[in-house]
Write a structure and sequence with these properties.
The chain is an alpha/beta fold. It is built from 18 helices and 16 strands. The protein folds into two domains: about 190 residues, 3-Layer(aba) Sandwich (Rossmann fold), CATH 3.40.50.280; about 240 residues, TIM Barrel. The longest helix is centred in the C-terminal third of the chain and has 19 residues.
Amino acid sequence: MKKILLVNPWIEDVSAYDFWLKPVGLLYISSVLKKFGIEPRLIDLLDRHDEELIRFLKKPVKDKYYGTGNFYNETIKKPNSMKSIPRYFKRYGMPEKLFRKKLSVHKDVDAVFVTSMMTYWHYGVSDTIRVIKEELHEKPVVLGGVYSTLLAEHARNNSGADFVSPGTGMFPLKKALGYIDIEIDIHNLNKDWIESLILDYSHYKEIPYKVLITSVGCPFKCSYCASWRLWKDFTFHSSEKTLDIIERFSNDGTKNIVFFDDALLIGDRFKRFLKMYLKRRRKVQFHLPNGIHAKFIDKELANLMKEANFKTIKLGYETYNVDLQKKTGGKVSNIDLEKAVFNLKDAGFTSKEVSAYIIANLPGQSMEDTAKAIKKCGELGIVPNVNEFTPIPKTPQWEELINDGKLPKNVDPLLLNNSILPYWWDKGLSVDQINELKNKAWKLKERLLNV
């Protein structure tokens, strides 16, 4: 039997937090490999509950908010591109010594498949591949995922992988397997993979939450988002499939279930799922951390979510500026937000469950715009989460900034990280201005939550 080691790489960044992070793509790949008689193995360097990690560190895992928590981290040498940035550079995830130990028991695998997420996390990817190469020597290393798709040439030149397989869906996996001389017929699977596959969590012995996606892509085309660029079509599975997954998760004892869709509320499938679920309710808590579309939260949906025990509802708000709301894609308006919050509050949700994402530093956005968005959240009684703008490669916003000469064409993707960008980019808000806005948001949070 062929054996493939799947690796979720380190994060190397100025900050990182386990906000329900799981390698969804690898867990789908694991299911596909099993279908074709290939043995999948997994090393998740970001698994805070790994038994060997706990023994290695000689201290228990401390969870915070519904299974979220801090990663183990070590300060490492800064890349040359951020030498002048006054921030520590850290590696988040499993210590290197333990990673090497884990790799030593997988010397019989035929290949190693590494995934990737944020483009600005590419140093964690290349460091992970470096260690794999040093320990497993001649084993071919294949890289896929978001970074390899949005910045394929950069990944080929910098990751250290033997083969880079960009793209989404089943074809990148077919290409990756073809590289190691394994041929599979994915014709039928590619049509309905999201309906026929289930995330393979069997690699984890202990896990306080499970993440799922019920759809990929998004029919909205927000200028700052890459979801619609990564996925050609908006594809989703049935309400019945969602219910089946939730029942499997609840039956194995999972207490916290997290939806990570980009467009969960579009159409009637989510409502249909909730109605079916409530007929055979389970003792689980649901979370929506991915900036859901406020315009689709009517009274019925708000009441269904309350009855189903949703504990985290994060709304995508982004900006108070009406012109910018329209220019960036029309995802939400101030009126949409007001109606959604009214319906949620009327259903019984409080400030502890409902918050809104606000972007600071969008091109064309003033400091006053963000301050008004924070104030709007205060008026509605919901917590504002201020996030600095990140130019994501291949998005319209990124392309416009490159074409207008406002971003260097060959900039290190690390420097586009929202925590680093304000230190060197003179086209937007300063670090002090952003910190002032974050302090406003924090004080409002303290007042709303009495913390």
